[in-house]
Design a protein that fits this description.
Helices cover 39% and strands 12% of the residues. It is an alpha/beta fold. The protein has a seven-stranded mixed sheet with strand order 2-3-7-6-1-5-4, sandwiched between helices. The termini are close together. The longest helix is centred in the C-terminal third of the chain and has 21 residues. The structure holds zinc ion.
Length: 304
């Protein structure tokens, strides 16, 4: 069965506190509908409903300290308790020790080896590759895993041809921040429908959204609310266009945006929101406890 993985960086299940947690304030009607009235807050999980399930998953994986992006994303892609093996959480970009785990053992590598179609759906701008080529920028864990699987990172021609999605969903940033005045722009709901159409071309596809972690570090309440309200519209367009043939997973590597009283990541559990047919959803969520359980559940869903 096909699986679309929407990775939201820095999203934990926090307190129902409108002073610190944008999820206590953002208007997210599509998410509320999926969760039958609940919001993305700590007391919402565990939940098994008609359309979606929500579990709280521990990203600390038994290792001291706050979870970080490089190790968190590497766990999501491998199922290996890398912080336990190394003795620490690490991020934002992988050091050589973490990077070594992202060669053969990732879902991208393993699905490709088994003849399954896998892709990272984000389109990366020229300045991203310039940064990599000049040595000023390191790959983060997810694109590094994609490259090691022999898969392409999508570029601006792929975005223009409709084969990839902008990191901000709508493509607005390509015009306002990246100088591509002709870049295709779509509404958030339309971007959700696009995500559904792209996911149909693959057995396993992943979309990476990092603006959430950034807004958390910057402690930007208004921006955080606006990002999540846009995401909710994406979710609406996505679920409307999604036929029942597959699962949608929304999860994260660690908390951050869920408590804007601190610049740091939080110790909150992260949401594992699973949308789709009930039997497949129940099989997916049956053994989910910490972040290491997600990759095996994805593997079983896709290979099953
Ligand atoms: Zn971060």
């Amino acid at each position: 069965m096909r699986l679309l993985f929407i990775f939201l960086d820095g999203i934990g299940l926090g307190e129902n506190d409108p002073e610190t947690n944008p999820f206590a304030r953002a208007r997210m009607p599509n998410l509320n509908r999926l969760l039958e009235g609940r919001s993305l807050l700590r007391d919402a999980a565990p939940f098994q409903g008609e359309y979606a399930s929500l579990l709280a998953v521990d990203p600390a994986v038994g290792v001291h300290g706050l979870p970080q992006s490089a190790t968190g994303q590497a766990i999501l892609l491998t199922g290996i308790n890398i912080p336990a093996e190394l003795g620490y959480h690490y991020g934002p970009k992988p050091n050589p020790e973490v990077a070594a785990y992202l060669k053969e053992a990732t879902l991208f590598s393993r699905f490709t080896k088994e003849g399954r179609k896998a892709a990272l759906l984000n389109a990366y701008p020229p300045r991203y590759f310039d940064g990599i080529d000049s040595g000023k920028r390191l790959y983060s864990s997810i694109p590094w895993a994609v490259i090691n699987a022999g898969l392409p990172l999508f570029r601006h021609p792929d975005l223009f041809a409709g084969h990839a999605l902008s990191a901000d969903f709508t493509g607005e940033g390509w015009r306002t921040m990246l100088g591509f005045s002709e870049a295709p722009v779509m509404g958030a709901a339309q971007a959700g429908a696009k995500l559904a159409a792209l996911a149909k071309m693959y057995d396993f596809s992943l979309f990476e959204y990092w603006a959430s972690d950034y807004a958390g570090h910057k402690q930007q309440m208004d921006n955080a609310i606006s990002l999540m309200e846009t995401f909710d519209e994406v979710l609406g367009g996505l679920t409307e266009a999604w036929d029942d043939d597959g699962l949608i997973l929304v999860t994260s590597d660690h908390g951050n945006m869920d408590d804007l009283s601190t610049r740091k990541h939080t110790a909150a559990h992260v949401p594992a929101l699973v949308i789709g047919e009930k039997t497949a959803r129940n099989a997916f969520t049956r053994d989910l406890k910490d972040l290491t359980d997600i990759a095996p559940a994805i593997w079983k869903t896709v290979m099953g």
